[in-house]
TrEMBL record:
Cofactor (UniProt): [4Fe-4S] cluster
Catalytic activity, reaction form: Hydrolyzes free adenine bases from 7,8-dihydro-8-oxoguanine:adenine mismatched double-stranded DNA, leaving an apurinic site
Family listed: Belongs to the Nth/MutY family.
Cofactor binding, note field: Binds 1 [4Fe-4S] cluster.
Alphabetized InterPro entries for the sequence: A/G_AdeGlyc_MutY (IPR005760), DNA_glycosylase (IPR011257), HhH-GPD_domain (IPR003265), HhH_base_excis_C (IPR023170), HhH_motif (IPR000445), MIG/MutY (IPR044298), MutY_C (IPR029119), NUDIX_hydrolase-like_dom_sf (IPR015797)
Gene3D superfamilies on file: Helix-hairpin-Helix base-excision DNA repair enzymes (C-terminal) (1.10.1670.10), Hypothetical protein, domain 2 (1.10.340.30), Nucleoside Triphosphate Pyrophosphohydrolase (3.90.79.10)
Key words of the record: 4Fe-4S, DNA damage, DNA repair, Glycosidase, Hydrolase, Iron, Iron-sulfur, Metal-binding
Record protein name field: Adenine DNA glycosylase
Pfam families: HHH, HhH-GPD, NUDIX_4
EC number: 3.2.2.31
Enzyme class: hydrolase
Amino acid sequence: MNELSNFHTQPAQPFFAQALLDWYPRHRRDLPWRRTQDPYAIWLSEIILQQTRVQQGLPYYERFLAAYPTVQDLANAPEQEVLRLWQGLGYYSRARNLRLTAQQVVNEYGGQFPGSYAELLKLRGVGPYTAAAIASFAFEERVAVLDGNVYRVLSRVFGITTDIAQPAARKEFQQLADQLISYENPADYNQAIMEFGAIQCTPVNPDCLFCPVREQCFAFQHGMVQQLPVKAKAKAARTRYFHYFVLRHGEQVYLRRRGGKDIWHGLFDFHLLETPAAELPAQALLTELEQLGAQVMTAKASEPAALVRHTLSHQKVEARFHELWLAVPLVPAALQQAGLEAYAAAQLDELPKPVIITNYLEQKAII
Ligand code: SF4
């Protein structure tokens, strides 16, 4: 293995940048954020693409730019509106940070994105990858991007066996990436290596036979394409069991805004009881209803709960929806204590919600 991990310490590999720069114009996908040097638009696209793949991210990018054409517009937007536009992308702290970063650009930089990697790193929610992307794409600064695609390509081409899940790997890969990046065209080089990883040197079934660096590629030459990059398995995500009480009365549905440091902070969902196992004991249901002062019309309460499984980055949610029709509305004191509010169906669409809540409301034809 030592032979492998030392391969990349050999003198600079000029073939690599040139091969990518030749490959890129012939294979690149035409994407709107590649047609601009506006750092605001580039930043928006990068934050969205951290959440989703290109095809899914495109409509979000277009919607955000249409709603907020400038960083000032985004800075002035209400948080709830930004969350609503972000809906479906998950990891909502990114959406909140998006708006806060826009405010930082307006308040601290006079509405102009800072023009260097070092300054960009000072922006809220902007890490080394995003700073490198903006600095190179918008300002042609020679600083190499490092994302999952780049790790994979470098690991395979240069035979690096370091576990990329380890924090120490970043330094090693960044050093190599900084040596390799083109002097003349850092922006295209960064775009090229990411695109190369996305469509040529893919995680599964890379197109080695038609690869321009096949002759020099360590993994291909040593039959190690499937083994590289080395990535230790993440710990299994824990499962959480959510029991949602979909409390309804007439045209109204009761929801609450999530607070605390938990997932989906600031989004709206139903009254929730979280249990250590999948089952909701009948006694727990009764106690909860009693505390809410909810008088349930039993005929509809006995319908089986709808089950939805949802996977987040570090946890899995098994949500069961118990639809409960109330004989009388909840009283204000109970609403206040549970943080609930009654909404007419027509109001629900405007609220930012986790995707499982939106899907449930749509399936039930409530919205
Ligand atoms: S030869 Fe295969 S593994 Fe090597 S860089 Fe090309 S596509 Fe990737």
